[in-house]
């Protein structure tokens, strides 16, 4: 375990098993739809890479970079698009792939944008869901694990761009992010 963590919440093996399960469900739900999976950079990269290996239907991928955190441990409430999609989504069934749903502000903003761009449908697959952090009424359609209202890192989740490469997820010690 990394010395900056209080404890590990989910092991690499638990994360992989849950990712496989989500991939199977997505394969069934989108069997005849050729979905477009949109990975939200940077946090969702590890989840997206593992997830698509377990989707056994035709699908496409694209990426967006959206931020409401910056280098802070709390959302600023201001959502910015840092990288937009490379193609039109009009008429497409879209699955937004997120690392975590926390306040829900970014996700609500993104869902509205994608629907405005005339996607046929927009669903969300998030590896982690922190319902206690929610400030808007939105939840992922596909969820790996609910998490406590703690600052977690690993498996794509970061604090100031650190810890993303941990293959497991743990609770970051408060003294690290309250400096």
From TrEMBL:
It catalyses: IMP + diphosphate = hypoxanthine + 5-phospho-alpha-D-ribose 1-diphosphate; GMP + diphosphate = guanine + 5-phospho-alpha-D-ribose 1-diphosphate. Residues 26-159 form the Phosphoribosyltransferase domain. Keywords: Cytoplasm, Glycosyltransferase, Magnesium, Metal-binding, Nucleotide-binding, Purine salvage, Transferase. Its cofactor is Mg(2+). The keyword Protease does not apply. It is an enzyme of class 2 (transferase). Its EC number is 2.4.2.8. InterPro entries: HGPRT, Hxn_phspho_trans, PRTase-like, PRTase_dom. One of its GO terms (molecular function) is glycosyltransferase activity. It comes from the Bacteria. Belongs to the purine/pyrimidine phosphoribosyltransferase family. Purine salvage pathway enzyme that catalyzes the transfer of the ribosyl-5-phosphate group from 5-phospho-alpha-D-ribose 1-diphosphate (PRPP) to the N9 position of the 6-oxopurines hypoxanthine and guanine to form the corresponding ribonucleotides IMP (inosine 5'-monophosphate) and GMP (guanosine 5'-monophosphate), with the release of PPi. This is Hypoxanthine phosphoribosyltransferase.
């Amino acid at each position: 375990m990394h010395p900056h963590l209080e404890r590990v919440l989910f092991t690499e093996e638990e994360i992989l098993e849950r990712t496989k399960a989500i991939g199977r469900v997505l394969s069934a739900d989108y069997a005849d739809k050729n979905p477009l999976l949109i990975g939200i950079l940077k946090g969702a990269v590890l989840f997206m890479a593992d997830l698509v290996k377990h989707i056994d239907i035709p699908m496409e991928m694209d990426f967006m970079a959206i931020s409401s955190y910056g280098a802070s441990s709390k959302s600023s409430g201001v959502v910015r698009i840092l990288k937009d999609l490379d193609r039109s989504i009009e008429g497409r069934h879209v699955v937004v792939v997120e690392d975590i749903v926390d306040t829900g502000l970014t996700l609500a903003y993104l869902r509205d944008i994608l629907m405005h761009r005339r996607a046929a449908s927009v669903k969300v697959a998030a590896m982690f869901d922190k319902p206690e952090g929610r400030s808007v009424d939105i939840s992922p359609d596909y969820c790996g694990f609910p998490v406590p209202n703690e600052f977690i890192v690993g498996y794509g989740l970061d604090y100031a761009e650190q810890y993303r490469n941990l293959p497991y997820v743990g609770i970051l010690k408060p003294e690290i992010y309250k400096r």
